[in-house]
Amino acid sequence: MKTTANAQPGQRSRAATPPAPVDRGGDVYQRLRNEIVSGGFLPNERLVEADLAHRLHSGRTAIRAALVRLDQEGLVSHEPNRGARVRLVSDREALEIEEVRVILEQLIVRHAAERVTAADLRDLRRSIVRMRERLALGDPMGYSELNAEFHQRIWAIADHRTAGRLLGNLKSQGIRFQYRTILRPGRTANSLREHELIVEALASRDPDATEAAMRQHLRHVVETLKWAIDAQRHQPIWLPR
Question: Nearest to residue 213, comparing CAs of 238, 182, 191, 184?
Fold first, then answer.
């Protein structure tokens, strides 16, 4: 009877076959969610399980589970016999989301003004520099991504978990990509100045001044969304072919 001996020192043993990769359902869900809210998929775009499995290097079981969770969150919609799509937000819902965001972000920025540190301010100012660079390069999409990161930094500084979670679920970034508010002439430059004023107010550590700066910024965001909705009704620019 032939037996397999252990490899002796100095001898090369045959490598065992590595185990198959394990689907980490939560990670697949998070990566797919990030792709959707960052504009990696367009509103109304089909989400084909096989394509997603290839794109995310995952099994279809994990993809299917992620799509179910995203459907429950309202980011994805399932259609009978047609599969899943990125959910299209209605004009009314988009405005309602932004109106709620105004209230929550004012609350959050007040907390941030009371907790902000010198290191936090340095990070926010570095974000402003990067946003200014994107503006100078004529890169509105890159600016939009940095804009989202800027607000998320403030959420982290505030450490108000409930408000932060609610804001994360509002899908405001998805709305930005659906309506392309960043395409309004002059909006990016004005937005940059508004962000600079928010940082200045945070540096003063005055909750009232910081809330006022955020309120002014978000009032313009809502106005720009209304402009984009009107423009979209005349010439849709986001629907995939």
Answer: 191
Q: Give tens-digit pLDDT for 28-82.
A: 998 998 888 777 888 889 999 999 999 999 999 999 999 999 988 888 998 888 8
Tell the CATH topology of 91-234: Four Helix Bundle (Hemerythrin (Met), subunit A) (1.20.120)
Task: Specify the DSSP class assigned to residue 79.
Answer: E
CATH number of 25-86: 1.10.10.10
Whole-angstrom Cα distance, residue 201 to residue 135? 22
Q: Residue ranges per domain, the chain?
A: 25-86, 91-234
Q: Are 100 and 170 in contact (CB under 8 A)?
A: yes
The per-residue pLDDT for range 105-156, each reduced to its tens digit, is 999 999 999 999 999 999 999 999 999 999 999 988 889 889 989 999 999 9
Sign of CA dihedral 114, 201, 147, 47: positive
Q: Is 208 buried (19+), middle (13-18) or exposed (0-12) by CB count in 10 A?
A: exposed
pTM for the model: 0.72
